[in-house]
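With this grant's support, we have settled on a layout for protein records. One resulting record is reproduced below.
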Amino acid sequence: MSLMTVAEVAEFLGVQDVRVLRLEREHLLIAADKNEDGAPLFEKESVEKYKELAQRLGGI
């Protein structure tokens, strides 16, 4: 299981960090864990699936 930080997810999706945090807060991206600072960490596979779905629906 490969975990990605908020910054890594934001770069992968081409959005700002605050957008990733909002997606997590709204349960559109589910955090797999939290780091020592309490920031969410995401499974790479889940982020890839989210990006594919979002592109099919017209964008992120």
